[in-house]
C-alpha cells in the first residue's frame, strides 16, 4: 500500500476499501502518512465522497488506530452523542438516568466547539471532578456506578485526532463523510453495544437546515450500523437554547434542579426521555420508545438518576455531598445584569448561535484552543419562543466577570431576540427520527 495511490483512488472517485482505510489510518497514527498527504486525502474525500462503504471502512480503521475498550458487565453498554448546541445539558441527565435503568454508559465527551457548549467543560465546573481519569478509572467507575462522563485519552482514535487537526486548517471540516467517521470512530472505540444520536437542527446547530441535519443523521446511522453498532437518531430542535441557561456552571445548576425536582426544565426532561427511550430499545431493555421514555421518566421522578449522578461525581473526585449542596459547591459570577425586552410582544425568533457566541465572549467558551474557560459565566432565565413579554421584562440574566463584558453580552442578547405582536407557533422539540 502507498499513500499516494490511496489518495489518487479517492480523487478519481474509486472510493476507499477497508484495506486502504486501515493502512491510511495506521499511517496517520504512526506518522508514516505526512501532513501533506493527510490534507490531500481529506480534500479528495471532501470533493469526491467515499460512499457508505468507504465511511464504514474509515470509521472502523480510525476506531482501530488506538485502544478499543472491551467490557464484561451485567448489562448492555450504550452511549449518546449530540452534534452540539446551546444550553444542551441532556448528557448530564441521560447518563445517570440510563444507568438507573440497568444500562452501562461510558460517556466519552468533548469540550465546547465554536459557539456550542461542551459536556466536559460543564463537568469540570464541579470542584475536584476528574474529567480525564484514564481508561482504568473509567472502566472501574462504569462497572461500580453505571456511568462515567469523561474525556477521551490520547489512546482513543489517534488517527482521528491527527486528521481532525489537519481538516481544521485545510478547509475540509464540513464533509459528511469525514464528520461521520470522526464522530463514530471515537464513540465506537468505547466498545458500545448501541448508540443513540441527537442531531440538532436550527439557528444554534452546526446544521441549521433540515435537509443537512437529515443527511448527517442518515449517514451516521447507516455507518454505525455498518460498523456493527446498533444506532438510531432523533433530529431535535436547536432554534433556541434547549435549557433556560447557557454557560457551564449555570447549566449544571439547571441539571441539578431538574434531577432533584426543585425546578424542572420540561424541555430538557422531554428530550432526555425521548433519547433515553431510543437508547433503552437499542439496549433491549424496552419494547417501544414510549416504554423506554417512561422508564427514564421514572428514574428522574424517583430521584434514582440524581443518586447515580451523585455517586459518579464522588467516584471521580468531586464532593461527596454534591447533590445536596450543589449551590454552595459551584462557582458564581460577580456581575449580574438583566437584559430588558426593548418593547412588549411575543418572542418570535431567537438567534441561538448569537447566544452561544455571547457565552463564549463572556469567557464561557474558547476563542483559541489555549483559552481557559471561566466556569461561572453565561446566561440564565432565557426567554423562549412564544413567551409574551412586557417592555423592560428580562429576556435573560447575564452572569459576567466584569461590567464591560456584561454590557457587550446584554447588547448581543438583545439583538438575538425578535419580538412581535403576533403569537408565533412554538417549534416542536423533536423534528424527526432516523433508525
Ligand atoms: N465532532 C467531531 O468529533 N468530529 C467532527 O468532524 C465534527 C464534530
Automatic annotation (TrEMBL):
One of its GO terms (molecular function) is 1,4-alpha-oligoglucan phosphorylase activity. One of its GO terms (cellular component) is cytosol. Pathway: Pyrimidine metabolism; dTMP biosynthesis via salvage pathway; dTMP from thymine: step 1/2. Keywords: Glycosyltransferase, Transferase. The keyword Transferase applies. It holds the Pfam family PYNP_C. The keyword Glycosyltransferase applies. It is an enzyme of class 2 (transferase). Residues 346-420 form the Pyrimidine nucleoside phosphorylase C-terminal domain. One of its GO terms (biological process) is thymidine metabolic process. It catalyses: thymidine + phosphate = 2-deoxy-alpha-D-ribose 1-phosphate + thymine. It comes from the Bacteria. Its EC number is 2.4.2.4. Homodimer. The enzymes which catalyze the reversible phosphorolysis of pyrimidine nucleosides are involved in the degradation of these compounds and in their utilization as carbon and energy sources, or in the rescue of pyrimidine bases for nucleotide synthesis. Belongs to the thymidine/pyrimidine-nucleoside phosphorylase family. This is Thymidine phosphorylase.
Amino acid at each position: 500500500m502507498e499513500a499516494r495511490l490511496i489518495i489518487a483512488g479517492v480523487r478519481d472517485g474509486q472510493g476507499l476499501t477497508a484495506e486502504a482505510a486501515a493502512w491510511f489510518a495506521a499511517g496517520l497514527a504512526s506518522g508514516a502518512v505526512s501532513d501533506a498527504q493527510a490534507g490531500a486525502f481529506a480534500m479528495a474525500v471532501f470533493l469526491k465522497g467515499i460512499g457508505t462503504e468507504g465511511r464504514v471502512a474509515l470509521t472502523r480503521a480510525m476506531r482501530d488506530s488506538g485502544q478499543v475498550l472491551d467490557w464484561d458487565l451485567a448489562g448492555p453498554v450504550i452511549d449518546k452523542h449530540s452534534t452540539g448546541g446551546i444550553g444542551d445539558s441532556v448528557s448530564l441527565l441521560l447518563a445517570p438516568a440510563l444507568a438507573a435503568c440497568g444500562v452501562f454508559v461510558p460517556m466519552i465527551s468533548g469540550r465546547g466547539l465554536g459557539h456550542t457548549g461542551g459536556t466536559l467543560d460543564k463537568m469540570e465546573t464541579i470542584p475536584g471532578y476528574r474529567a480525564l481519569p484514564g481508561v482504568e478509572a473509567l472502566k472501574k467507575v462504569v462497572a461500580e456506578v453505571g456511568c462515567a462522563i469523561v474525556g477521551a485519552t490520547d489512546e482513543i482514535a489517534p488517527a482521528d485526532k491527527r486528521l481532525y487537526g489537519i481538516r481544521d486548517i485545510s478547509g475540509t471540516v464540513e464533509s459528511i463523510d469525514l464528520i461521520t467517521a470522526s464522530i463514530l470512530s471515537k464513540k465506537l472505540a468505547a466498545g458500545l453495544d448501541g448508540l443513540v444520536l441527537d442531531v440538532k437542527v436550527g439557528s444554534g446547530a452546526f446544521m441549521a437546515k433540515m435537509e443537512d441535519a437529515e443527511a448527517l443523521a442518515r449517514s451516521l446511522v447507516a455507518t454505525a450500523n455498518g460498523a456493527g453498532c446498533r444506532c438510531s437518531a432523533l433530529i431535535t430542535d436547536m432554534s433556541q437554547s434547549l435549557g433556560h441557561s447557557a454557560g457551564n456552571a449555570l447549566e449544571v445548576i439547571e441539571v441539578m434542579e431538574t434531577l432533584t425536582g426543585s425546578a424542572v426544565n420540561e424541555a430538557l426532561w422531554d428530550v432526555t426521555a425521548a433519547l433515553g427511550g431510543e437508547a433503552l430499545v437499542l439496549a433491549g431493555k424496552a419494547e417501544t420508545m414510549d416504554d423506554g421514555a417512561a422508564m427514564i421518566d421514572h428514574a428522574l421522578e424517583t430521584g434514582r438518576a440524581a443518586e447515580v449522578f451523585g455517586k459518579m461525581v464522588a467516584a471521580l473526585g468531586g464532593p461527596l455531598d454534591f447533590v445536596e449542596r450543589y449551590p454552595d459547591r459551584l462557582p458564581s459570577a460577580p456581575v449580574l445584569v438583566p437584559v430588558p425586552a426593548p418593547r412588549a410582544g411575543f418572542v418570535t425568533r431567537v438567534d441561538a448561535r448569537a447566544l452561544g457566541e455571547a457565552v463564549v465572549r463572556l469567557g464561557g467558551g474558547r476563542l483559541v484552543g489555549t483559552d481557559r474557560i471561566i466556569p461561572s459565566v453565561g446566561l440564565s432565565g432565557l426567554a423562549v419562543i412564544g413567551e409574551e413579554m412586557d417592555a423592560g421584562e428580562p429576556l435573560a440574566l447575564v452572569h459576567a466577570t466584569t461590567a464591560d463584558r456584561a454590557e457587550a453580552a446584554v447588547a448581543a442578547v438583545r439583538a438575538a431576540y425578535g419580538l412581535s405582536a403576533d403569537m408565533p407557533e412554538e417549534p416542536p422539540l423533536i423534528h424527526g427520527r432516523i433508525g
